[in-house]
Amino acid sequence: MTDYGKALEPEDPIATQRGGYIGLTSRPASPASSKSDLRTWHPAGPGVVVLPSGCLVRGRSLRSGRADNTPPDFAVVLRGSAPPDVDWPVRWVRWRDFANPSDPSDLRRALTDLLGRAAGSRVEIACAGGIGRTGTALACLAILDGLPAGEAIAWVRSSYAARAVETPWQRRFVARFPAAR
Fold first, then answer.
1. C-alpha pair distances (Å), 118 with each of 39, 57, 112, 148, 162
2. What is the pLDDT of residues 9-65, one digit of tens each?
3. 59, containing H or E segment
4. Nearest Cα residue to 123 out of 66, 176, 73
5. DSSP 66-120
6. What is the structure's pLDDT at 21?
7. H helices then E strands: how many in the chain?
8. Considering only CA atoms, which of 50, 48, 61, 53 is closest in space to residue 22?
9. Are 55 and 26 in contact (CB under 8 A)?
């Protein structure tokens, strides 16, 4: 298995029941749902943010691996070149370090897909360092989820990483990212 980090079987009994593959993001389950139906991140887990709608999404660094050794159900990977093969679905968005996405409409499609999956599975956004591109994508995801663009950078910096959205052109990209789907 090719992986971004050390792969271990998760210790979570729910993860084991569901095949061991848990992803980043999901809406909190209703009281009527059974525990075995839960496929969400722990809200206090490493890199996990709560979107305005209540969905959970994990942001992370590809270099650091997965802090909790739990693979996602779906990932959006932000890299200048194609990511290595892994055992879960990955949507690659071409995006060089410290830059903006090569095709902004491709990022929008990938984030819209991720947001659609977030309510029922664990999803994540990842780049090499887990700060600039990942933070920028998380801010754009929050805009798609209903947060005003003018609040997105402050939100991602308080919810995810203080240095998220690293460059002036990434900040400008977030400010101009349209919320309309």
1. 10, 7, 10, 20, 24
2. 333 333 323 233 233 333 333 333 333 335 789 899 899 999 999 999 999 999 987
3. strand 56-61
4. 73
5. -TT----SEEEEEESSPPPP-SS-EEEEE--TTS--S-HHHHHHHHHHHHHHHTT
6. 28
7. 5, 5
8. 48
9. yes
